[in-house]
Design brief:
Blueprint (H helix, E strand, L loop, with lengths): L2 H32 L2 H6 L2 E9 L20 E3 L8 E6 L5 E8 L7 E6 H7 L5 E7 L12 E6 L9 H11 L5 H4 E3 L4 E6 L2 H11 L7 E6 L13
């Protein structure tokens, strides 16, 4: 019997502590809710197996309401907020592209990402491949690194002499006359841009996909991508 009063006193002392703990938990949750979307996305990285999906889903509605386009740069992830842009890097060959998460999946426990057919093809993934992924925007597509811009890379190769002229000619023949001002030349790529949004970059990618099948969306600083100057003809 002597232990009961002590236990009752202990319980009375614990009750306000329990209330304080609940209050602290609520305050912490409120603080997390006030954090910008980028704070949650900034630390996100992951590595694992990626697969792809294509013709059998083409045109069907994705988790965010878009019609699935098998040639666009999109992906499905189990938890990354829809609308987030992520950099996907292939472990085999080191190729990297920017895709937008617009769907949920994959529904295999050992896989972390389902790429559109086009995105997988640009990464050189046939079937299943190992990748690392990193969030580069918040769920509204706003880039975490505000000094970077979106570009459409024409191919994954270092420009050779004459590439600017040849590429510009091919673009103009398809009706992309704005290439005269958008074409950029970096150390390891020719690209179009910069684009204000992923949607704009995606539209450009689809327009040139037939003549530049290896084209993809990338991030770069404007200082790294000066305007390309065609070599004057002799």
């Amino acid at each position: 019997m002597s232990g009961r009063p002590e236990a009752a006193a202990s319980m009375r002392a614990w009750r306000p502590m329990r209330g304080m703990s609940a209050l602290l938990c609520c305050a912490a949750a409120a603080c997390l809710a006030l954090l910008p979307c980028s704070a949650a996305s900034a630390a996100f990285t992951e590595s694992g197996e990626a697969s792809w999906y294509g013709p059998w889903h083409h045109g069907k509605t994705t988790a965010n309401g878009d019609a699935f386009d098998m040639v666009a740069n999109t992906a499905a992830h189990k938890t990354v907020p829809l609308g987030t842009l992520i950099r996907v890097r292939s472990a085999k060959g080191g190729r990297s592209i920017i895709v937008r998460v617009n769907d949920r999946g994959p529904y295999y426990r050992d896989r972390i990402l389902d790429l559109s057919y086009g995105a997988a093809d640009r990464l050189g993934i046939d079937g299943v491949g190992m990748v690392s992924i990193e969030a580069v925007s918040d769920k509204r597509g706003r880039l975490l690194d505000r000094s970077s811009r979106l570009y459409v890379r024409l191919g994954m190769y270092a420009p050779a002499p004459g590439d600017v002229d040849r590429s510009l000619g091919r673009l103009i023949r398809t009706g992309m006359y704005e290439a005269m001002t958008l074409l950029r030349k970096g150390m390891d790529s020719l690209a179009l841009g910069p684009y204000e949004s992923f949607t704009d970059a995606q539209s450009a990618l689809v327009r040139i996909g037939t003549i530049f099948p290896e084209a993809s969306i990338m991030l770069a600083r404007e200082s790294e991508m000066p305007p390309a100057s065609p070599v004057p003809a002799d």
